[in-house]
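Aim 2 progress update. The chain analyzed this quarter is reproduced below.
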Amino acid sequence: MRISGALIGALALCVIASGAVADGMLRAADHAPIGVMGDHRHKLGEFMLSYRFMHMDMDGNRIGDNDVSPETIATTVANRFFGQAMQPPTLRVVPTSMTMQMHMVGIMYAPTDWVTLMAMMNHTEKEMDHITFMGPAGTTRLGTFTTKSSGIGDTKLSGLFRLYESGIHKTHVNLGFSLPTGSTTERDTILTPTGARPNPRLPYAMQLGSGTLDLLPGLTYTGRDGARSWGAQYSGTVRLERDHGYQWGDRHALTGWLAYELQPWLSVSSRLAFSTMGEIDGRDAAIIAPVQTADPDNYGGERLDLTFGLNLVGQSGIWHGQRVAIEGGIPVMQDLNGPQMETDYTLTVGWQYAF
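Predicted structure tokens:
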């Protein structure tokens, strides 16, 4: 499995990194937890290559902060498309679980000491399981089905601009754009309440990109004192246009972390991450189905995650400048525009190499 391979790699670097440590070498807590993007700048002429693997698991549904069963959704939640051909009065298809895996490749380069440029591309794989209820009403289950989508996601280009730097404190502005390179027309076979198996355009959650040019503003602060380090970051996604008649809601996130070096080559971290996102504005006329994910109103909400991480850095030889890190998180609060699937956990594993 991909996750197992990444963990083995992290343990291998742990063994290698635990060798001789000399003054002035890289420190494990110099970087934020691996789930934080754009947390640090580089010196003039430096490059950094990175790879991250992110896994997210979702299971069950919520309306607001209350859990709801598939039967409750199928019998009580109105179908916004009722009145159109073959559309029942309530939702008759309910998603029950979803996984998303994302492979992210990035490069950073510093043309000056006060500006670092960053580019990131990703390949995303999504899989969603559903229950279909028979006919226009009732709780009789007709069957289940799974939809999948995979491919290149949106591409992010940004710059990190120094605001302030002292021996302990550093602050920089994050500013960039997300380019709509991910598909918004993915299709797959579904099971309808009548037993038919058409191949329509998938709902918004299963598409690979936003379809729009998005502004990525942000502000990052980091601090370091001996074995202790800390930081905070605001990041936003502001939609600048519409695609197929809709645009995703703006997203705003705030995170703060603490890290401690057990050894110069090894640090542990803890982080709180809050995010809020609006509903989808408008809709794609090609997305019509008696399922919650087809309704633009059932997107967005608020979430607070608690994460724990581990950072390792190679100190000498061919491993000098190479980092391996892992971070896992669980939600401690979710208030969703629903019905909507809730997040169970996230896991991020990454490698970075600066030269």
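The domain at 2-354 is CATH 2.40.128.130 (Lipocalin). Confidence is low (pLDDT under 50) at residues 1-24. These observations will guide the mutagenesis experiments scheduled for the next reporting period.
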